[in-house]
Amino acid sequence: MLAYSLFERHDGYAFAYKVLGRNQRATPLVLVHGLSAVGLVDWLPLAQSLAEHRSVLIFDNRGIGASTVPRERADEPYDVRDMARDVVELVNHLGWKEIDLLGFSMGGMIAQTVLVSPSLPFKICHVVLAATSAKPAHSDLLQAIPSPPPGPMSYEQKVELVKPFIYVGYDPAFVQNPQNKQLLDRRIRESVETRRPARTVQHQIGVIAGYDVRKQLPSVPKSLPVLMLHGTLDRSVYYSEAKYILRGLPHAQLLSFEGIGHMWYDYFDVQYWTTLLNRFLSDQEVASLVPPAQPSLAKL
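User: That's the sequence. What structure does it adopt?
Assistant: Structure tokens below.
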């Protein structure tokens, strides 16, 4: 894991974060990750590539990775509005007055909730919503979430436990292709070797179950540029979920990626995604960058 800073909030919550890059000329980009994700690990190498052009904030959501919850509040329920407030207060802590915002999966749900929050202390200039939904999504993900058995487990047992959860982030052909073994093994290893408590994941499942911003989305100004990214073979958030966002944000631009699954940035070379996102964030045309139907292999 990268060395990180700690935002210790007045209520005892502590958020581990890292600002990559220090380009003061470009609007900083805030990356919000999803269910079970450790942002300080799982955003790499994409975040590092993006940070060559702008400041990029990555962080661990509450109670996961290096972010901690006060012991006396460990069992308190929370919802997506609380997680959106976490993002708002972290950005406010950094003193940024303008940001671009990218939310992936559950992170996209958090990002949409930030968008419809009143009286933000900063301006949002661009939004990217990747593989996400405006409501509880049709998904194969929950069935793949590991349930640890009682008692200690060996490293090898942990690897076997998390494999189905990792694999559901990709399409079956990607998983079966031996050329992708290095990348998949890395994602499995990262899942096993970082702190992802079952209690926190269960809380996040409750966040998803109680989430619905469809009625609030029309309040987002049409002047705000919104880019949606979604793979047609997404098993974690079905591609059909994109239409619910478009109903609330009809001005959003949807880029559909034929033949790719949920973990969009692990498909294609990282430079492809960096170029696409940088062009959108600088108000340039991006539709011509949609790749051919057959994905190339991701590169570490």
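The longest helix spans residues 80-94.
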